[in-house]
Design goal:
The complex is a heterodimer of chains A (about 270) and B (about 450).
Chain A (H helix, E strand, L loop, with lengths): L10 H4 L5 H29 L9 H4 L63 H4 L13 H9 L30 H14 L11 E7 L4 E8 L4 H14 L13 E9 L6
Antiparallel strand pairs in A: 1-2, 1-3
Chain B lengths: L1 H19 L3 H4 L5 E6 L7 E4 L4 E4 L3 H17 L3 E4 L10 H13 L4 E10 L2 E10 L6 E11 L3 H17 L8 E6 L6 E6 L6 E2 L7 E6 L6 E5 L6 E5 L9 E4 L5 E6 L5 E6 L6 E6 L5 E3 L7 E6 L5 E6 L6 E6 L6 E2 L5 E7 L6 E7 L1 E7 L7 E2 L7 E6 L5 E6 L6 E6 L5 E3 L7 E6 L5
Parallel strand pairs in B: 2-4, 2-5, 3-5
Antiparallel strand pairs in B: 5-6, 6-7, 8-9, 8-31, 9-10, 11-12, 12-13, 13-14, 15-16, 16-17, 17-18, 19-20, 20-21, 21-22, 23-24, 24-25, 25-26, 27-28, 28-29, 29-30
Classes of the chains: A alpha+beta (about 270), B alpha+beta (about 450).
């Protein structure tokens, strides 16, 4: 059927009003939708893999030695290529981290409430002591700052063991999240005893896993592969064999503890 | 029209929001801690302070002192801790004093501190254990737990606390709240005794004046199977050490030898050696019904069955290869294979985790050896210290109890499987042999 040359609007059509408002709403919604998709994608990819590579040699995680006994010498940190300071913490604002101002004694009904505690306004050595470079001497840098920081509080903790997580090297990055050096040490020791991948040169995998409140292992994933499926499996098996881990400390309130773990080939170790 | 537009808009917004919000797995991606694991770190012990318990109800300072020392001894025996010496109690409800105490212990090198609060209420004993991390300036609380026992079982209170401390530091409870059964007495009369795993509170559980041998705890820790000559022949019985009125039950009294009981992991079956059909063979007895199933058929001696923790395999001793060696067979007697060679091997004991079998090798003296169930990598656990035999595993597989005459008379010793610590647990007044380590008590 051919169209007529001139288009006459009949009375019914003449009364029709174009749906301008809904069209406008639709346009805005579409724009919002695509903006959200693009924005969301960028956030997603940003938050997807944010491993914080921290070099921690065994002596750093050890809970310390009795007074007067020097810490064992640090092992070379060579095997981790990825720890230049530029890549250090691009941390998100701590939205799901436990508040740092919580009083140290929160167990219900305990009479002893006023153990010597640090004023929350004091700068935590942990936040101050990020090493300038990963090769900065860990034994000298943190120690003096630690004394400064802990001098003001009422009864200074006499001779707190030297190797705690606070102020001893790169682990300080995470101190505000999980200040239980003994716990880290136990996990590390348990896994180490069961890891038979040592003596294998080349890159080792890094693994992310979660520990539930009762110490059970929740999720284990390879965060960065070693490039060799066998070594990845050996690392995963070590973690599985090492579980169950200690129950999470009563004072640590999160439902799970999430741990990133880098296996390191250490030629100097036995 | 307007309503449709609103619905569409709402849908778009919801969809967009869902797409924008990252899924939960991604949201939780940030790690709390990042650590490295390298080879070569030697295990080090944790220094722990156990000051005298604080009495909060009732009055028994001697008990408060005893509990602290028992906890300290348990932690030492665990092989995981060095206990920092302590004296004097912490006053109740005095945070300042507690803080000063921890400061002093931290200065002395302690990594953790245990504060016990003891309440004595009539026939009940209550204790609260508070465990502190002394490596943090705040002395953070690691855990607070309460325990309760009947007054005569005061040492169990300490054992339970020690086991909880081991759990808090390793993820697996300790084995302090367990018992040892063993045989005492000079030749001619041998009776079975039950004691705490550290040798304290030894109590006789047979008093028949006969010869009672090879006690073995059942997996529910309620009964002990043993061989006794109380009726004149070597028959197999079962006693109930915690139910004093309950009589001894006869399990097997066939013609000939009835000996070397081995419980299945579920406690429903007992593997044993019977010579009723000629030479000693291994059978499985269904405890509830008395039904017997014969597993071995060989002209040689087959004896000392020991179940794998899976219940699917049984290790045993056989001299079918000339000298006694360790063999493994399936639960039904099939698929027999020899796992030790070149020696005189007896007393197999399968580890609770299934990864190792302990046995006794005779080569001049008797010594304990460990081998994998596949027969690879045999290694000695004792050497050069008299005779060492009759091993029994602790429930966590980290310790062994065994008998040794290294000091002259047979005594029961406890050693860590890594060989780093060995402690004598019996008192030495008579011979003590053939220990069996109970499961964790209910």
């Amino acid at each position: 059927m051919a169209l007529p040359a001139s288009f006459h609007i009949g009375p019914a059509l003449g009364r029709l009003r174009l749906p301008l408002a809904p069209a406008l709403v639709s346009a805005i919604a579409h724009a919002a939708f695509f903006a959200a998709v693009i924005f969301g994608a960028s956030i997603w990819s940003d938050s997807r893999s944010k491993p914080v590579y921290v070099v921690l040699t065994p002596s750093t995680a050890a809970v310390g030695s009795p007074r007067g006994v020097p810490m064992p010498p640090r092992v070379e940190e060579a095997p981790i290529p990825k720890s230049p300071p530029a890549e250090l913490p691009r941390r998100e604002p701590a939205r799901d981290l436990p508040s740092r101002e919580l009083p140290p004694q929160r167990s219900a009904g305990l009479p002893d409430r006023s153990l010597p505690t640090r004023s929350p306004t004091l700068p935590r050595p942990a936040d101050k002591e990020l090493p300038v470079t990963s090769s900065a001497s860990p034994s000298t840098a943190p120690a003096p700052a630690r004394r400064e920081a802990s001098a003001p509080p009422p009864p200074p903790p006499l001779g707190a063991p030297s190797g705690s997580a606070v102020g001893s090297g790169p682990l300080t990055l995470s101190v505000s999240d999980f200040p239980y050096a003994y716990y880290i040490r136990q996990i590390q020791q348990k896994i180490q005893e069961r890891w038979h991948g040592r003596g294998i040169p080349g890159q080792q995998p890094s693994v992310v896993f979660e520990i539930g409140r009762d110490g059970r292992l929740n999720v284990v994933t390879i965060d960065r592969t070693s490039g060799n499926a066998y070594y990845d499996q050996v690392a995963l098996r070590a973690i599985n064999d090492a579980s169950p881990f200690p129950p999470l400390p009563d004072d640590f309130r999160k439902a799970v503890l999430r741990i990133g773990l880098q296996f390191v080939f250490d030629p100097t170790g036995g | 029209m307007r309503r449709i537009a609103a619905v569409v808009l709402a849908l778009v917004i919801v969809t967009a929001f869902e797409l924008w919000a990252p899924p939960p797995a991604v949201r939780g991606q940030a790690v709390d801690v990042y650590i490295n694991v390298t080879g070569g770190d030697r295990s080090r012990k944790l220094n722990i302070a156990v000051p005298e318990f604080t009495v909060v109800a009732g009055a028994d300072t001697a008990l408060a002192k005893l509990l602290a020392s028992v906890v300290g001894n348990d932690l030492t025996l665990s092989g995981l801790f060095s206990v920092v010496a302590a004296s004097g109690a912490i006053p109740a409800n005095n945070p300042a004093a507690l803080g000063q105490t921890w400061s002093a212990f931290a200065a002395a090198g302690a990594h953790a501190g245990v504060h016990g609060l003891l309440g004595i209420r009539g026939e009940r004993l209550e204790a609260e254990m508070r465990l502190y991390d002394l490596t943090t300036p705040e002395y953070r609380l690691i855990a607070a737990r309460k325990f309760e026992v009947a007054a005569p079982q005061s040492r169990r209170l300490a054992h339970k606390i020690a086991d909880e401390i081991v759990l808090q530091f390793t993820g697996e409870p300790g084995v302090a709240d367990t018992k040892l059964a063993y045989v005492v007495g000079p030749p001619g009369a041998k009776e079975i005794v039950v004691a705490d795993y550290d040798g304290a509170a030894a109590t006789p559980v047979t008093r028949n004046g006969s010869i009672n041998l090879s006690p073995v705890w059942s997996p529910d820790a309620r009964s002990i199977a043993f061989t006794s000559f109380m009726n004149g022949y070597p028959d197999l019985f079962r006693l109930f050490p915690f139910e004093r009125q309950r009589p001894v039950q006869t399990l097997a009294s066939f013609v000939g030898i009835n000996s070397s009981p081995g419980w299945s992991p579920d406690g429903r079956f007992l593997a044993l050696t019977l010579s009723k059909d000629g030479n000693p063979e291994i059978y499985v007895l269904t405890v509830a019904t008395g039904v017997l199933q014969r597993l071995t058929r060989h002209a040689g001696i087959d004896t000392e069955p020991a179940w794998a923790p899976t219940g699917q395999q049984i290790a045993f001793v056989s001299d079918r290869a000339g000298q006694p060696r360790i063999f493994v067979m399936d639960r039904d007697g099939a698929n027999v294979r020899q796992i030790t060679t070149g020696g005189f091997h007896t007393q197999p004991r399968w580890s609770p985790k299934g990864d190792s079998i302990i046995y006794t090798q005779r080569a001049g003296t008797h010594d304990l050896w460990a081998i994998s169930p596949s027969g690879s990598t045999p290694r000695p656990l004792t050497s050069g210290q008299g005779d060492n035999q009759s091993a029994t595993w602790s429930p966590d597989g980290r310790h062994l109890a065994f008998q040794s005459n290294r000091n002259g008379r047979w005594q029961v010793f406890v050693m860590s499987v890594d060989g780093l610590t060995t402690t004598r647990v019996t008192q030495g007044t008579t011979e003590a042999t053939s220990p069996s380590w109970s499961p964790r008590l209910p």
